[in-house]
Amino acid sequence: MNTIWCRRPLWVLLLFATLLYPSHSLSALDGAPLDRPFEAIAVGIVVPALVFLAPSFVDTMLARGLIVALLLLKLAGTALLAQGGWCASFRLDEPLHGTIPPALAAAAQAIPIDEPFGVLHSWDVRADWRDPSSSCTAVVTRVYRSQREFPSWFLNLLRHVEPARDDVSMTITGFINPDAPGTVTFATGSGVLRGTVGGKAIAVGPGEARVDVASGAQEVRLTMVMPAGDRWMFVPRWNQQDLWSQVPTITVKPSAIDEVAWRTRGWIELAIGLALVGGWLRSLWTELQPGLASLAWMVTASAAMAALAALEGAGRFSGLLLMAAVAVPMPPRLRNLRGAFLLAGVPWLSFFCAKAFGQIGAVTFYSGDDWLTYQAAGHRIFMAGYWLEGGNAVFNYQPLYRWMAGALHLAFGDSSVGEVYWDAACLLAGALLSFALVDVVAGFPWGMAATGATLATFTTGTTWYLVGRGLSEVAAAGWAFLAAFCLLRARRGHVAAAVAAGAFATLMFYTRLNHLLFGVALGAMLLPAGVTSWREAAVAWVTRMRARVPAAYALTFGVGLALFTLRTWWYAGTFNPLYGTSLSINDTGLRPWTLASMGTWERVLHSVFTLLLMNEPPRPDVRALFVLAGVAAAALSVLRVPLFKRVPLGLSVTCLGGIAGALVAHTHNYPGRMSIHLVPFAVATLLCAVASGMDRLRARSLLGKANVC
């Protein structure tokens, strides 16, 4: 079993690598970029959910055979077949040199944007995305009815460099290979299109042009001057139907094997993918066998959540709806983390499937703030190859998310839908962590209450606007939640889990530097759930805990911090992990020698209450009730106040550790951003306290009745 468990992560990684590997075929499951609804939802949401719910399916010969078959088919296609679609190259009249964003240049140490050949790259891994003089910056495989549907992520750069640029042109090259003569039409909106199709000249601008094409391979060479503004359009049709589904489109002149394989190769890949997902769903159903009540809830709640996503502003109530899952009866075999995922996670992900549906295959235009800063730095890393420098010599803004944003763009293309999915998964992980922390103490119903309360705080509170915004707070919290899950496993003496926890805590710190002290506090999660006092903690440390487990966590986290410090020293010559960071402008000034300063404490209290009340400037807000009450319960638990004695000490210490960063640094703007990591721990602490209090009242009531008898 241990051998299977060790191999399973490798097969999961191979599965995702195979699904993301870009195919030369055109199908609904042709790999990165995931710019069609079916593949974006299947790879971005459905398959990760299946991996969580039924990971054992990866161990079967059926799953591994299908994974290998799909990978071999894609590799054979890469070796033998031409890339489907047409090559598009976006260019400027003059090379692009500038910095992003001008308004933040001083604070962000100026992120350079340099396209020396005037080429504008997209996030299309099928094209020459790393070649600075590329003649193929995107592969066209669908119609573009609006500017947002073009592979035009670069518009975020053009709109914010100085001076702003709009001298964009698009060149398209490739072949069509119809079986019979037909007519190609091009609708270009207000764009000007010139070129040839099958040797026949075509010109339109603006409007629609038609050209009759003979059968067989016909070369396409087009140039389109993109209009100023947003009235971009490129809609080619074959006999008034979608061109891409009617005739073969190929980037180079097709060979004999291309002609034979065109009508079958995409369907074979899709069939293997569907067989894999279908087999997984069947295995999941057989393994879990959810009851009728839970199944009815999942269907009804998922439909309701999708409907809420379609209504403007109604999504704020989605978390409140999931609180009703407490009343759903679950069979004993599902009164666990997987059962919580079925009741809350499936509707939650359904909500984001619907909410982000319009973003699939569409460019997001970023506001000129931190959001754009991360994106521009990601462009510099992945397009210009500054893999270690990361866009800046020192990181005034949080570092790791720029790498994460670039990786998500490679997977999902120019769209930011991957960032929406990632944030949704991180928040769900927090809710499930809250469930796990409460379930072990108070049972399944209380755990489901914690799940719903956590998600309700995220949706109704001030943090909701951050989901999919592409900032670092949600991502950093996600790494923290994964670290906590690993620490729960490490309690049983698993050193490997402790190392994994240290790695995730390191990623949390890299993503959000304010979490340095929180990374230390997370170590308290190693205390068993039954430890509720300092005396019990000391006994557990001596008699029950293996020293190598906390040592493995501390060493891994320490190595991560040292590597970050070495990188700063390499570029800035200073051996200080916080050198050049925003601490210089957000420092509260709290030091041992400033403890008597009222001004220092005013800044500290402002910072702490901004976190607890989830508002900037801090002000009372009922939506922050669980956070404020949970932290208060943690403090009373640590102080051994009688009504709070039974709350797990490790949970209380970790919850209080969640505010440690606010004592030292206060990040202004973006209300609620600094509270995300704290919400699950605060909710879990509060509900553990309430559950233990109710148990004590019930016990006293029973004792009273016994005395009367």
Report a brief summary of the structure.
By secondary structure, the chain is α+β, with helices and mostly antiparallel strands. The chain folds into 3 domains: 2-81 and 260-286, no CATH class; 86-254, Jelly Rolls; 392-696, no CATH class.
Domain count:
3
Bulk shape = globular
Strand content bin = 5-15%
Number of strands: 14
Radius of gyration over C-alpha positions, nearest whole angstrom: 28 Å
Q: Detail the poorly predicted runs.
A: 104-108
Percent range of helical residues = 40-55%
Biggest sheet architecture? 8 strands, antiparallel
Number of helices: 25
Distance between the termini: 54 Å
Give an account of the 3D structure.
There is one protein chain. This protein is an alpha+beta fold and 709 residues long. 52% of the residues lie in helices and 11% in strands. The chain starts with a helix and ends with a helix. About 1% of the residues have low confidence.
Give the arrangement of secondary structure elements.
Layout: H1 2-20, H2 37-53, H3 61-80, E1 86-92, E2 96-100, H4 105-108, E3 111-115, E4 119-120, E5 138-140, H5 155-158, E6 168-176, E7 182-189, E8 192-197, E9 200-204, E10 208-213, E11 218-225, E12 232-238, E13 241-242, H6 243-246, E14 249-250, H7 256-288, H8 292-310, H9 318-322, H10 337-355, H11 370-384, H12 400-412, H13 417-442, H14 444-460, H15 473-490, H16 495-511, H17 516-521, H18 534-543, H19 548-572, H20 583-586, H21 598-613, H22 625-638, H23 649-657, H24 660-664, H25 679-708
Antiparallel strand pairs: 1-4, 1-5, 1-6, 2-3, 6-11, 6-14, 7-10, 7-12, 8-9, 8-11, 12-13
